[in-house]
Specification:
alpha/beta, seven-stranded mixed sheet, 9 helices, about 45% helix
Length: about 250
């Protein structure tokens, strides 16, 4: 098997103060970095252009299209540039950098697996965010008839590019916050293997969140309903897979 050639993909929307630190930590891991500017404001755009001038790849959306669209653009660019895997990391700096090397190690051991971070929160996590995530966890477990996906909302995961981009050509999985969850459910439905890895998460006091409460919750609820309906024709196969799993 050809030796994996990984990179990092960082979707960015108005994180001018944290993105350079995230990029620096990824460079320390020896990863080339692909930044995706999802229609950021001028201050962030200037910072991304500075990073691009320093040698990092930059994909630009002229208007904000959403995290899902930004990740898709980054994954396509990564494959176009000849990389085999992409470590997706959010630009807000919430994820502990010392937990990232485990993803690279696991990639070498199981290169066909999609590696999924599951959040380990400290005391900075808002209680509403913590409890709200469990509704999605439960729906994911229902729609896969499995608890193999521990956390479908964590912003760290490592994608095998050819397989995931092929899946996304068939099922784009939404442009905004629904993407992270739907791509994992559809990966599981397609018979893809995955591995869960812990990632420590810290919410800074002045952190920037782009979660739109009403819009994103409505889209997430609609996604769960749509996946629940789509799960029923897959029910026999999911039950069979569940019986065969240890």
């Amino acid at each position: 098997m050809t030796e994996p050639r990984p990179c990092a993909v960082v979707p960015v929307y108005n994180h001018p103060d944290s993105v350079a630190g995230v990029v620096g930590r990824l460079v320390d891991l020896g990863l080339p970095v692909i930044l995706v500017d999802d229609g950021s404001e001028p201050s962030c755009r200037r910072e991304l252009e500075r990073l691009a001038n320093a040698g990092h790849a930059l994909v630009t959306h002229q208007h904000n299209r959403g995290k899902g669209a930004a990740v898709r653009s980054g994954l396509l660019e990564a494959e176009r540039l000849g990389y085999s895997h992409a470590l997706q990391v959010d630009a807000d700096g919430q994820h502990h950098p010392e937990d990232l090397p485990a993803f690279i190690d696991a990639m070498h051991q199981t290169p066909h697996h999609l590696l999924v971070g599951y959040a380990r929160y400290d005391d900075s996590v808002p209680r509403a965010r913590l409890y709200g995530r469990y509704a999605t966890h439960v729906w994911v477990w229902i729609n896969t008839l499995s608890r193999r996906i521990r956390d479908s909302m964590c912003g760290v995961r490592l994608y095998p590019l050819a397989a995931v981009n092929g899946l996304l050509r068939r099922h784009p999985c939404g442009d905004r916050m629904t993407f992270d969850t739907e791509v994992l459910v559809r990966w599981y439905w397609a018979g893809g293997e995955l591995t869960n890895l812990p990632v420590r998460v810290h919410y800074p006091e002045q952190g920037v969140s782009h979660f739109a409460l009403w819009r994103d919750n409505a889209q997430i609820s609609a996604m769960h309903a749509r996946l629940f309906v789509a799960m029923w024709p897959r029910l026999p196969g999911l039950l069979w897979r569940h019986r065969r799993q240890p």
